[in-house]
Design a protein that fits this description.
mainly alpha; 6 helices
């Protein structure tokens, strides 16, 4: 049985759906959700080989600590993680990770 969402979660869910529908989240993320083996590296290919620590990613302290607690200490370790594994975290945290990866991916794609 699904638990009832509180008003903040409902609003976060609505914002995420709006981002997906407006194209602000890459469609590839949504496409890969059904593929349990897809990693963030499969989605954000321009970031493969980029050497960056979590502190360089300008994440909130909450997200930074969440990743470190789960053994993710740099960008390359994050890129090895399966996208599907991240659907269980808070939507705001997920959005922040995807937004930052998307921003970095665009930056590095232009440099290539």
């Amino acid at each position: 049985m699904k638990r009832k969402l509180n008003p903040k979660e409902v609003e976060a869910d609505k914002r995420l759906n709006e981002k997906v529908e407006s194209g602000k989240l890459p469609g590839t993320i949504m496409d890969f959700c059904s593929d349990n083996n897809a990693t963030f590296g499969d989605v954000f290919m321009a970031l493969k080989g980029v050497d960056s620590g979590l502190s360089d990613m300008d994440l909130s302290l909450r997200v930074h600590n969440l990743l470190k607690r789960n053994g993710i200490h740099n960008l390359q370790l994050l890129l090895e993680e399966k996208v599907a594994d991240f659907w269980n975290i808070d939507r705001r945290e997920y959005e922040q990770i995807v937004d930052k990866l998307q921003e970095l991916n665009k930056k590095h794609a232009k440099e290539q």
